[in-house]
Amino acid sequence: MTVTYHSGRRIQGTQADFDGTPAVSGGWKEVGRTTLGSAGNTIDVTSLADKQYLMVLTNILQNGDYNLRTRMNGDSGSNYSYRESANGASDTTSTSTDLINFTSASNTTDCFNVGYAANLSSKEKLWQSWLANVRTAGAGTAPYRGETVGKHAQTSNPISQFNIFNNYGSNKFASGSEVVVLGWDPSDTHTTNFWEELYSGTGTSLDTGVGGITSKKYLWVQGYLTGVSTGTTYKYVVNGDTGSNYAQRLSVNGSSDSTFTNNSNGILYHSGQGSETSIFFNSFIINNSSNEKLVITNNVYTTTAGAGTSPSRQEIVSKWANTSAQITDIQLTGTYGTNSILKVWGSN
Questions:
Q1: For residue 275, how many other CB atoms are within 10 A of its CB?
Q2: Using CA atoms, how far apart are residues 170 and 161, in angstroms rounded to an integer?
């Protein structure tokens, strides 16, 4: 059975389901991709299919000082507004402007951005994204963390083009820099899902195991842990590396960021706060073998059962300072219950 990942965190098959009922097709489908063959200052992804939701994966390999911005449908008028935060600092806003910032900071190292757009043609186009930047090579420096929400105030057409660009000098995006656009729509019936399930496990020892997973350029690691130990830091070790080769940046419930450098024993997906009962997390990874691996993680966790206590959240960016191999093995650390789940999705 082929498994596909759907909007709304639904998992369905493209053949008969286990009870014999025909499964529904569809899922996140690649609708556009542009990869630079030489250094440049802009990446255009055009002729996008009309999909209700878009997911945009942006990987910039640096060739000098750059910032990262986007426009939609070639519109350079004052039809955008956005709100952004850098490294957990207070939000800055811009209105009636001609772009949406992914980051206004000057960048001199590689970065990875994951964004979503709501794309109904008759509504303003809403955008949200998260960014991780290497900042300084090696595990001795924590990565940069950016968050942006924005909108394109046009209500007559769906998004058919993304223009990702820099205005600090010329040719600052190195060859190999890439933007991939995925689309999802309720009416989709295709069986060409971008995200391929590489691993699925349940229990108290979640590990992709000997031989690991198929190497992929983009990884999506998703976990739900029950019966966790309160106040415990949870990580996943990649490729068996338990050395001090990781760096992290963390915000808890919107607080100021904390940083961890020369960190050991893996990529952080939850920092213990003292009263956790269950954790749900999503991590996206850019997994180029010759570049440090950048990770964007968001989690939500419960502390007290019932509606009388709100859940908590953490935003995390991480890096694995390895430039010689792709991640092909993932192992969750710590103690967790029998109903815990780990899934790994990937694509090239």
A1: 13
A2: 22
